[in-house]
Each structure stands twice: as C-alpha cells, then as structure tokens.
Amino acid sequence: MVTYLWSVAEDDAVFKALADPTRRFLLDLLFTRDGRTLTELESEVEMTRFGVMKHLRVLEAANLVVTRRSGREKLHFLNPVPIRLIHDRWIDKYTERQVAALADLKAQLEAPTDKEERP
C-alpha cells in the first residue's frame, strides 16, 4: 500500500477548488498554455479582474496553481500533482476491482470450450 504525505485538509482544498466551473476553466487554460498573466486569464472569462484574482487565490491555496514573478509580471502555472494524488487516492482504488473483473470475464469468454477443441 502506498502512503502519501498528504492531509485531509489538502484534499478538501483541492475538491473545493475543483468544485467551481470557472476555476476548472482557468485550469484548462493553463493546461493549454502555461505561464499566463492575470490579464491573459481575465481576457478569457466574463468577470472582473478581482473575480479572477479571487479564483486564482483559491487555486493557489489548493496548490493547483503556482506563480512566478518575471519582471513586473506575475505568471501563473498549472501544478497537476494534487489532481494526480486525488486520482490515485480516490479514483484508482475504486476502479481496480472492476477492471480486474472485466479482465477475468474477457479471459473466460475467450477461453476455448470443449466443443471448439473437438474436430
């Protein structure tokens, strides 16, 4: 069993951040092209600059977005690691049994029967 140094509070922050469609859209924008400024992100959504800043703060608190200063600009980058940790902890373990069952079913269906073995 794999254990991560990841707390329930961090899971909650990621789930909270992903719960909002605007924040998911901002993450999608960063996925398509990383290193965007606030002005670039603001131009893609129909809300005020302060609204976008508020959403980015939630994403930063969940560690889904990291920032770096480049001169006078603040660049925003996607950090996919928290999403992967959520996937590994909450999704992957629940699908393992179903995938194993489907693999077993496939093997049973493809196994030769007594009738197929006879000439």
What layout of secondary structure does this protein have?
Elements: H1 8-18, H2 21-32, H3 38-44, H4 49-61, E1 65-70, E2 73-78, H5 81-110, H6 114-117
Antiparallel strand pairs: 1-2
Helix pairs in contact: 1-4
Protein name: DNA-binding transcriptional regulator, ArsR family
InterPro entries: ArsR-like_HTH, HTH_ArsR_DNA-bd_dom, HTH_MetalResp_TranReg, WH-like_DNA-bd_sf, WH_DNA-bd_sf
GO molecular function: DNA binding; DNA-binding transcription factor activity
Bin the strand percentage.
5-15%
Class of secondary structure makeup: mainly alpha
CATH class of the domain at 8-81: Mainly Alpha
Number of strands: 2
Task: Tell me which oligomeric state these chains represent.
Answer: single chain
Query: What is the level-2 CATH architecture name of the domain at 8-81?
Result: Orthogonal Bundle
What does this entry show, briefly?
With 119 residues, this protein is mainly alpha-helical. The protein has 6 helices and 2 strands.
